[in-house]
Design a protein that fits this description.
Strand content: 25-35%
Largest sheet: 10 strands, mixed
Oligomer: single chain
Number of strands: 10
Helix content: 10-25%
Shape: globular
Structural class: alpha+beta
Length: about 260
């Protein structure tokens, strides 16, 4: 059957993550409920990157299959309107498009981008509070950048993922870049940590951020990050940064 995709954003706060869970409010559950109402049958979806409870998305992509006759008299614009009318207010569907047959939002992705937002200073943020981590202590960004350099390239990131999720599974990933820049919104400044890679393990970005924040606070040296990577043990790394500061920012599928 023909394959289609939706690009969507969501506020992760009300959801128990992306993946469907019986009896829980999830992004995938809402999307599939709306698709079932539209097409009067269950429609299974595949996403570019599963996000945990509380994690947001700016441009998540999901793929699914529909018969051509099911879309008769329906345009992409009308389908976007219908999905937005039928799903939770925390979800916004931005685009509906036809893809090559067999396209997978997950397996055809070439790289994914996450951004993590950290606010600092003597007073916590107001407007950015739902989408950032407030770290009062000053952060040495140059030290964080030095520490992050040890993570660039293909490595075994077992130290940077949820231990249970790594059991019996490959944990090698390729991190293309980790960059740092400032962003201001509504008069509130944030440090943005941009992480781009081919794929990510469970809680990998949040563990990377938590580890780099320890370096930024002066609690560890930049060289310590290399030791954490080599340990292949989750207990060696820093804490998980809070979920609300993380945004699934983008995914790339090539030309």
């Amino acid at each position: 059957m023909p394959t289609y995709s939706m690009t969507l954003g969501y506020d992760g706060a009300p959801f128990c993550g992306f993946a469907r869970q019986p009896g829980q409010l999830t992004v995938q559950g809402e999307l599939e409920r709306a698709l079932e109402l539209l097409f009067r049958r269950p429609v299974e979806t595949v996403c570019a990157g599963r996000t945990d409870a509380g994690v947001h998305a700016r441009a998540q992509v999901v793929s699914f299959e529909l018969a051509a006759e099911e879309l008769r008299d329906r345009t992409p614009a009308s389908l976007v309107r219908s999905m937005n009318a039928l799903t939770h207010d925390g979800i916004v569907v931005r685009e509906w498009r036809e893809r090559p047959e067999g396209f997978s939002a997950r397996f055809d992705a070439q790289w994914r981008e996450y951004r993590y937002f950290i606010c600092g200073g003597d007073t916590p943020p107001l407007f950015r509070a739902p989408t950032s981590w407030y770290v009062k202590a000053p952060l040495d960004v140059e030290a964080m950048r030095e520490g992050a350099a040890h993570l660039i390239g293909e490595h075994d990131f077992k130290s940077f993922c949820l231990a249970v999720s790594a059991e019996g599974k490959p944990t090698c990933r390729n991190v293309h870049s980790i960059d740092f820049f400032r962003d201001e919104s509504l008069g509130e400044d944030a440090l943005v940590i941009q992480v781009v890679g081919n794929a990510f393990l469970h809680s990998m970005v949040r563990t990377i951020v938590g580890t780099l924040v320890m370096v930024g606070k002066g609690q560890r040296t930049p060289e310590w990050v290399r030791e954490v990577l080599a340990a292949r043990d989750r207990a060696a790394a820093g804490e998980n940064a809070p979920a609300q500061g993380l945004v699934f920012w983008n995914v790339h599928y090539g030309a």
